[in-house]
């Protein structure tokens, strides 16, 4: 987020100056709502150095404070390890975020479609993060892969890249190299500043020409800890790509509704009606998210057993006819409306939930759904 949306970091903090009390307010979107998190400046250290996140500039403390606020939500630093970057992104920015599994795309050999998706996100200055075999939902380890995949990962680590971590995607380039097929390259920044990819199109690859290096910003790969690799290799090595839109209020209309599903005599389906003031064409972005309420990050993760979300279905209707639909068993259901054109007029968002797990919800505040409409 800091890589592409520099103002977003400043907006995450209510406290912008160092103070003698050492108390700071961080603003995160918990369950879809902007929530103040208070932290102090006591940071875990070993031999005088921070144990976890830190900046190359010793005078910067924002990343330490932001990480501490995130750890406070989870209950400890240990509990926040791993996880889906899109889950973190939605809490940092309040903007729609989603993750794409590269496995099914590789199996279908739809590399061009995946490249088009990255180009779409790149053109709109979306934040993009890729993560490897450890990108699971609970920070409890990766799913088991094939022996071949494990051996490939070991070989990759020998070449200089730790694919179990998360990396920022900061560029996507497409060009034709001589008579060869079109080349598609992904530019990655390693936030830890160590271990770079050394396969094709890496720093010392003979494939580079001075002109192509300038075009792809490959002249600073060592000093800025940058890696560039072919799209197919990128998809082979990273299991998950997470994308979230920016927060520019001049580009997007963002609104949310909180609905309280009461346990006594409530309907499992709720409709919300809104007016679309202008046409939304295929080049625009129109997203709907439904976030489940509840202090799940802190309270429920400390309990024994896993706290399960209820299944939510989002439907978008016009004149009682379905435009698009998505069902999810995640805490946040994200629907990016896939439609040629959305004409101006009245629409209905229909939220349908399965039966609530009464034993998991301790009081009424945990039966709320936050519905966001996000339109470019």
Topology:
Blueprint: H1 6-12, E1 23-30, E2 33-40, E3 45-46, E4 49-50, H2 62-74, H3 85-93, E5 97-101, H4 102-107, H5 111-123, E6 127-131, H6 147-159, E7 166-176, E8 182-189, H7 210-216, E9 226-230, H8 231-237, E10 240-244, E11 253-260, E12 269-276, E13 280-281, E14 286-292, E15 312-318, E16 321-328, E17 332-336, E18 341-342, E19 345-353, E20 368-375
Antiparallel strand pairs: 1-2, 3-4, 5-10, 6-7, 6-10, 7-8, 8-9, 11-20, 12-19, 13-18, 14-17, 14-20, 15-16, 15-19
Written account of the structure:
It is a single chain. The protein has eight helices and 20 strands. β1 (23-30) and β2 (33-40) form a beta hairpin. Strands 5-10-6-7-8-9 form a six-stranded antiparallel β-sheet. The chain has a four-stranded antiparallel β-sheet with strand order 11-20-14-17, with no helix packed on it. The protein has 376 residues and is α+β, with helices and mostly antiparallel strands. The chain has three domains: 6-81, no CATH class; 97-244, Cathepsin B, Chain A (Alpha-Beta Complex), CATH 3.90.70; 253-375, Jelly Rolls.
Short description:
The chain is an alpha+beta fold. It contains 8 helices and 20 strands.
